[in-house]
UniProtKB/TrEMBL annotation:
Subunit organization: Homodimer.
Protein residues bound to substrate: 41-45, 53, 57, 85-87, 89, 91, 208, 214-216
SUPFAM superfamilies linked: Undecaprenyl diphosphate synthase (SSF64005)
E.C. number(s) listed in UniProt: 2.5.1.-
Cofactor note (record): Binds 2 magnesium ions per subunit.
Protein name in the entry: Isoprenyl transferase
Gene3D superfamilies membership: Decaprenyl diphosphate synthase-like
Enzyme's top EC category: transferase
């Protein structure tokens, strides 16, 4: 088998349940419902072994199924994976061609496996520049798995966080100009409706592999309050047990969403009144003062 032929070979799918591997039992309230993953380190993993970068992508694609199986086993409801960013078009033409062609083949093969696991597949990203053959496979995967009720797996391909917000803003501006939307009615829920996947849950746990500590323009809106978890492992070495470790770390954190409790005080104040008076700025304007 030539190197090119091997690069395009899809690894065998892992089983949904691996003998001897059991996820930790975490309280439902302490379990992340939505986990987002930046699957970084494929190329470096391959180069460190004297292999072409494409070999890292090949192994990494197979590994995604193992992590998805682990998400199902522990009880995660939604998993988003950063498969190809809008910035990845800057990579060498050869690597981009491999990723697009391989993604097309992987989608065709893995779709049936994920469908048998009751996984619902959703594509999240931009249409421009994306290969039409890849887009067809994505749409077909969405169609085939549309009625599944298990894990929601968001495949973020040709995706960028800033691009998503810019596209949403442009669509909102067009609807305001056309009279379909009032500017005064725009709020956070409005913006959510214009994102690529309006029904996406807020990200609870944001994982990045590859020993890098940045979010890289991934799900910026949905990850506003996400807990961050950085793994030194390259993506091909990050499996379901590593996902479970991340979930355990998440379960041990306290999420306050901007609120806080002073443990020294026995009684919390009932409000945040203005010590100078009871009238708010809004009431003063309303009364014409």
């Amino acid at each position: 088998m030539t190197d090119v032929a091997r690069d395009m070979t899809v690894e065998a799918a892992p089983p949904l349940h691996r003998p001897g591997l059991t996820p930790p039992v975490l309280p439902a309230a302490s379990l992340p419902r939505h986990v987002a993953v930046v699957m970084d380190g494929n190329g470096r993993w391959a180069n460190a072994r004297g292999l072409p970068r494409t070999e890292g992508h090949r192994v990494g694609e197979a590994n995604m199924l193992d992590v998805a199986a682990g998400a199902i086993e522990i009880g995660v409801k939604e998993l988003s994976v950063y498969a190809f960013s809008t910035e990845n078009w800057r990579r060498s033409p050869g690597e981009v061609r491999f990723i697009m062609g391989f993604a097309r083949k992987v989608l065709r093969v893995q779709r049936d496996v994920l469908n048998s696991w009751n996984v619902r597949l959703r594509w999240v990203g931009r249409t421009p520049r994306l290969w039409k053959s890849v887009l067809r496979e994505l749409r077909e995967a969405e169609r085939v798995t549309a009625d599944n009720t298990g894990l929601v797996l968001n495949l973020c391909i040709n995706y960028g966080g800033r691009a998503e917000i810019a596209d949403a803003t442009r669509a909102i501006a067009e609807d305001v100009a056309a009279g379909r939307l009032k500017a005064s009615s725009i709020n956070e829920k409005t913006i959510q409706r214009y994102l690529y996947s309006p029904t996406m849950r807020d990200v609870d746990l944001f994982i990045r592999t590859g020993d890098e500590q940045r979010t890289s323009n991934f799900l910026m809106w949905s990850s506003s309050y996400a807990e961050l978890y950085f793994s030194p492992l390259a993506w091909p070495d990050f499996n379901r047990t590593e996902l479970w470790k991340a979930c355990e770390a998440y379960a041990g954190r306290e999420r306050r969403y901007g609120g806080a409790v002073d443990k020294v005080l026995h009684e919390e104040p009932t409000g945040a009144e203005d010590p100078e008076g009871d009238e708010t700025e809004e009431s003063l304007h309303r009364d014409g003062q």
